[in-house]
Structure formats: structure tokens, C-alpha cells
Amino acid sequence: MTVHMTTPPAPIDMADLDEVAILKAKHVNVYYGAKQALRDVQLYVPEHSITALIGPSGCGKSSLLRCFNRMNDLIPEARVEGEITYHGQDIYASHIDPVEVRRRIGMVFQKPNPFPKSIYENVAWGARINGYHGDLDELVERALRQAALWDEVKDRLHESALALSGGQQQRLCIARTIAIEPEVILMDEPASALDPIATLKIEDLMRELKERYTILVVTHNMQQAARVSDYTAMMMLTDDQKAGTVIEFGLTDQIFTRPNDPRTEAYITGRFG
């Protein structure tokens, strides 16, 4: 990918960013048993925006993403230190229910993982078990419309979700996430298993969704990060190569045109990683 070194956008005022950040990670360290995966990570995620996490394989992008909805709790011997807040509340505080955290901060995984149920039940199931008392038919239609899938499946709602294409399955998983009415959506390489046409549909959908949600996405695709994100965090292994950390964060235009760290420039131009 060619990076044109032009006059950079105005730098981010960190005080302003602190005011609009819905999620904050401060001095976060993550361990899996004795192995440290993340070291002293700091990251702000602004509301109603798309923030991309980029960096070479093994630098901890997915580990960091899972911190924001306590998915690392499900991994044996995983330990998170530091502070992660959502609307100023420490989500790792002893009185916080991780299930409620995951309802408010939903997640879409790399590989589409629809339930072996009908299209309708895939969307309705999570809302139902969370005690939704409204009109399920209306909820299912609304979620599928927001996921840009309704017109393709409205006459097939009671057919198996497993019969959908890979791209449709991924949009169904996004609809399933939307149906439980989160505020934040975490996406772990949501288009890496999809063909280029399906990938573009997911990217278009992400742009639409940021009007209602805050999105944090892990991607290895530099063009994708440049196309869809408002902010970008560059991750890299620390100098001793033992743990990942955020080495640079800023507006995506600035990161891709005038990065401050030479390692960021080397990575996005394909000379590293």
C-alpha cells in the first residue's frame, strides 16, 4: 500500500478525546498463566465512531479486544490488570456482572458462527433469554434491516441459518448482536473469511452502524482500516518481543499519511510485519 506523505490533519487533543471516549483502557496488562500478552496498554475509544486496531500477528489485538467485554474471563488462567472503563465505570469491579457487560458491549467474531436454528431464532434467541418483552417479530425485522439483510431473507425466516452464504451468515451474526441492543460492537476481523464482495457489504454496514453504535474492529487489512475507520491504534510487540502494546493512536487519516512512529509507517507500507 502506498502512503502519500502530505500535510497531516490536525492532531488529536487528548483532553477532548477523554471527554468523548466511551471505553478507556489505562495501563492494561494481560497474562495467560505466566505469559504476558499485553503490557501497559492505553487506548481511548470515542463514541459513535469506528476505531481500528492494526498491527502484525501476535501483537495482542484480539487479546485487547476481548478485554473490553470480559471475554478473557472465559479463558483459563487469563488475568487482566489495570483499568478498563465503560462510561467511567470500571467493568472489572467486583460488583459488575460480566454477562451484563457483554450485553452492552457485543461481539462479532472472525468466523461467522450462526446457531443451528432458523434465521428468525438466531436473531430472537438472545433477546428472549435477556427478558425482552416487546414484539419479537418487530425486533427481528429491525435487527435484520440494520444488518442490511432483511430484503435477502424476509421470505426465508424459518429456514436454517446454516443455509446462508458466508457473508450473509456474518451479517446475521451482526443482526443477532444488534438484537440485544448493545451500545458498543466489538469486531474481530469480521471480513477476513469473506470474499471481496461480501467484505465490501460488511464495510458499508459498519459505516451505517456507527450512527447508532460505537465500533472497535481488529483488522489485518490496511486498506480496510483506511476505508472504514475514524481512528486507528497501531499495536506492536514491545522491544523485548514478549508482549504487545499500543505504540501510536490517532485519526486514521493522520496515521496513514503522517505517522509519528517509524514502525507504524514501516508496517502500513508493507516493509514490516
List the defining traits of the structure above.
10 strands, 6-stranded mixed beta sheet, 4-stranded antiparallel beta sheet, alpha/beta, globular, 273 residues, 11 helices, Rossmann fold
3D structure, described in words:
Helix content is 35%, strand content 25%. It has 273 residues and is α/β, with parallel strands linked by helices. The chain has one domain (14-268): P-loop containing nucleotide triphosphate hydrolases (Rossmann fold, 3-Layer(aba) Sandwich). It has a six-stranded mixed beta sheet, sandwiched between helices. A four-stranded antiparallel beta sheet has the order 2-1-4-5. The two termini are 13 Å apart. The relative contact order is 0.20.
Q: Report low-confidence residues grouped into runs of 5 or more.
A: 1-9
- Assembly type: single chain
Helix content: 25-40%
Question: What is the string of helix and strand elements?
Answer: HEEEHEEHEHHHHEHEHEEHH
**How many separate helices?**
11
- Terminal Cα span: 13 Å
Structural class: alpha/beta
Which value, in Å, is the CA radius of gyration?
Answer: 19 Å
Shape: globular
What do the pLDDT scores average to?
A: 92
Number of domains: 1
CATH class: Alpha Beta
Strand arrangement, major sheet = 6-7-8-3-9-10
For the report, how would you describe the main beta sheet? 6 strands, mixed
CATH superfamily placement:
P-loop containing nucleotide triphosphate hydrolases
Return the CATH architecture.
3-Layer(aba) Sandwich
CATH topology tier name: Rossmann fold
